[in-house]
Amino acid sequence: MIILGIDPGSKYCGYGILEIEGKKIVAAGYDVHKIKPSLSFPEKLYEVYLKVIKMSNEYKPDIAVVETIFYGKNIKSAFTLGHVRGAILLALAEKKIPIEEYSPREIKKAVVGNGNASKEQVQYMVQKILNLKIPPTTQDASDALAIALCQFNREKFK
Predict the structure, then answer these.
(1) Residues 4-24: tens digit of each pLDDT
(2) Residues annotated as catalytic (active site), given as ranges
(3) Structural domain boundaries of the chain?
Protein backbone atom coordinates (compact mmCIF):
# COMPACT_ATOMS: atom_id res chain seq x y z
CA MET A 1 0.00 0.00 0.00
CA ILE A 2 1.21 3.51 -0.80
CA ILE A 3 -0.06 6.47 1.22
CA LEU A 4 0.44 10.04 0.02
CA GLY A 5 0.29 12.64 2.79
CA ILE A 6 -0.11 16.30 1.86
CA ASP A 7 0.37 19.33 4.10
CA PRO A 8 -1.27 22.12 2.07
CA GLY A 9 0.13 25.61 2.02
CA SER A 10 0.07 28.65 -0.24
CA LYS A 11 3.85 29.17 -0.04
CA TYR A 12 5.13 25.68 0.78
CA CYS A 13 3.23 22.47 0.17
CA GLY A 14 4.70 19.47 1.99
CA TYR A 15 4.29 15.92 0.81
CA GLY A 16 5.30 12.53 2.17
CA ILE A 17 4.95 9.07 0.69
CA LEU A 18 4.80 5.95 2.85
CA GLU A 19 5.17 2.50 1.37
CA ILE A 20 3.73 -0.28 3.52
CA GLU A 21 4.45 -3.95 3.00
CA GLY A 22 3.02 -6.08 5.80
CA LYS A 23 4.45 -4.64 9.02
CA LYS A 24 7.29 -2.84 7.26
CA ILE A 25 6.82 0.89 6.71
CA VAL A 26 9.21 2.99 4.64
CA ALA A 27 9.33 6.70 3.89
CA ALA A 28 9.55 6.35 0.10
CA GLY A 29 9.86 10.09 -0.42
CA TYR A 30 9.21 13.44 1.18
CA ASP A 31 9.89 17.04 0.36
CA VAL A 32 8.36 20.48 0.05
CA HIS A 33 7.12 22.06 -3.13
CA LYS A 34 8.04 25.74 -2.98
CA ILE A 35 5.44 27.77 -4.81
CA LYS A 36 6.88 30.63 -6.83
CA PRO A 37 5.97 33.89 -5.06
CA SER A 38 6.02 35.81 -8.36
CA LEU A 39 2.95 33.92 -9.65
CA SER A 40 -0.56 35.26 -9.38
CA PHE A 41 -2.80 33.41 -6.94
CA PRO A 42 -4.66 31.48 -9.67
CA GLU A 43 -1.29 30.48 -11.17
CA LYS A 44 -0.15 29.27 -7.74
CA LEU A 45 -3.25 27.11 -7.44
CA TYR A 46 -2.59 25.67 -10.88
CA GLU A 47 1.04 24.94 -9.93
CA VAL A 48 -0.12 23.04 -6.82
CA TYR A 49 -2.67 21.16 -8.91
CA LEU A 50 0.00 20.12 -11.45
CA LYS A 51 2.40 19.03 -8.67
CA VAL A 52 -0.25 16.75 -7.14
CA ILE A 53 -1.02 15.27 -10.57
CA LYS A 54 2.72 14.66 -11.12
CA MET A 55 3.14 13.00 -7.69
CA SER A 56 0.07 10.85 -8.31
CA ASN A 57 1.46 9.68 -11.65
CA GLU A 58 4.91 9.03 -10.19
CA TYR A 59 4.00 7.24 -6.93
CA LYS A 60 0.55 5.83 -7.79
CA PRO A 61 -0.80 6.10 -4.23
CA ASP A 62 -3.59 3.81 -3.06
CA ILE A 63 -4.90 6.59 -0.83
CA ALA A 64 -4.15 10.27 -0.22
CA VAL A 65 -4.46 12.08 3.08
CA VAL A 66 -4.82 15.84 3.37
CA GLU A 67 -4.74 18.01 6.48
CA THR A 68 -7.95 19.96 7.12
CA ILE A 69 -7.99 23.71 7.53
CA PHE A 70 -6.72 25.08 10.83
CA TYR A 71 -9.05 27.81 12.00
CA GLY A 72 -6.87 30.58 13.35
CA LYS A 73 -7.42 34.25 13.90
CA ASN A 74 -6.66 35.24 10.30
CA ILE A 75 -9.72 34.52 8.16
CA LYS A 76 -7.90 35.52 4.95
CA SER A 77 -5.29 32.80 5.56
CA ALA A 78 -8.06 30.24 6.12
CA PHE A 79 -9.69 31.17 2.82
CA THR A 80 -6.35 31.04 0.98
CA LEU A 81 -5.61 27.62 2.45
CA GLY A 82 -9.12 26.51 1.47
CA HIS A 83 -8.40 27.38 -2.16
CA VAL A 84 -5.12 25.46 -2.07
CA ARG A 85 -6.87 22.45 -0.55
CA GLY A 86 -9.49 22.69 -3.30
CA ALA A 87 -6.79 22.45 -6.00
CA ILE A 88 -5.27 19.44 -4.20
CA LEU A 89 -8.59 17.67 -3.73
CA LEU A 90 -9.54 18.31 -7.36
CA ALA A 91 -6.28 16.79 -8.62
CA LEU A 92 -6.70 13.72 -6.40
CA ALA A 93 -10.35 13.28 -7.39
CA GLU A 94 -9.44 13.58 -11.05
CA LYS A 95 -6.92 10.74 -10.59
CA LYS A 96 -9.65 8.76 -8.73
CA ILE A 97 -7.49 8.41 -5.62
CA PRO A 98 -9.46 7.86 -2.39
CA ILE A 99 -9.04 10.81 -0.02
CA GLU A 100 -9.06 10.99 3.78
CA GLU A 101 -8.81 14.19 5.79
CA TYR A 102 -7.61 14.72 9.36
CA SER A 103 -7.35 17.77 11.57
CA PRO A 104 -3.96 18.91 12.90
CA ARG A 105 -5.06 17.78 16.36
CA GLU A 106 -5.93 14.25 15.14
CA ILE A 107 -2.59 13.98 13.35
CA LYS A 108 -0.57 15.10 16.37
CA LYS A 109 -2.45 12.69 18.62
CA ALA A 110 -1.87 9.78 16.21
CA VAL A 111 1.87 10.44 15.88
CA VAL A 112 2.91 11.96 19.20
CA GLY A 113 0.08 10.86 21.48
CA ASN A 114 -0.79 14.47 22.32
CA GLY A 115 -3.13 16.61 20.21
CA ASN A 116 -1.35 19.76 21.44
CA ALA A 117 2.15 18.61 20.46
CA SER A 118 4.58 21.11 18.99
CA LYS A 119 5.87 20.93 15.42
CA GLU A 120 9.27 19.96 16.84
CA GLN A 121 7.74 17.04 18.72
CA VAL A 122 5.97 15.87 15.55
CA GLN A 123 9.22 16.13 13.57
CA TYR A 124 11.08 14.14 16.25
CA MET A 125 8.48 11.36 16.37
CA VAL A 126 8.28 11.09 12.57
CA GLN A 127 12.06 10.62 12.50
CA LYS A 128 11.91 7.94 15.21
CA ILE A 129 8.88 6.04 13.87
CA LEU A 130 10.26 5.91 10.33
CA ASN A 131 13.89 5.30 11.43
CA LEU A 132 15.14 8.27 9.42
CA LYS A 133 18.85 8.95 9.93
CA ILE A 134 18.18 12.67 9.78
CA PRO A 135 14.83 14.41 10.22
CA PRO A 136 13.08 15.96 7.22
CA THR A 137 14.68 19.33 6.57
CA THR A 138 11.40 21.22 6.79
CA GLN A 139 8.43 20.96 9.13
CA ASP A 140 6.11 20.92 6.11
CA ALA A 141 7.70 17.66 4.93
CA SER A 142 7.63 16.09 8.40
CA ASP A 143 4.00 17.22 8.79
CA ALA A 144 3.14 15.52 5.49
CA LEU A 145 4.76 12.28 6.70
CA ALA A 146 2.85 12.64 9.99
CA ILE A 147 -0.40 12.99 8.02
CA ALA A 148 0.42 9.77 6.13
CA LEU A 149 1.33 8.06 9.43
CA CYS A 150 -2.06 9.06 10.84
CA GLN A 151 -3.72 7.18 7.97
CA PHE A 152 -1.38 4.22 8.44
CA ASN A 153 -2.44 4.01 12.10
CA ARG A 154 -6.12 4.11 11.09
CA GLU A 155 -5.57 1.36 8.51
CA LYS A 156 -3.62 -0.73 10.98
CA PHE A 157 -6.44 -0.75 13.54
CA LYS A 158 -9.33 -1.37 11.13
Answers:
(1) 999 998 899 999 999 998 878
(2) 7, 67, 140
(3) 2-156
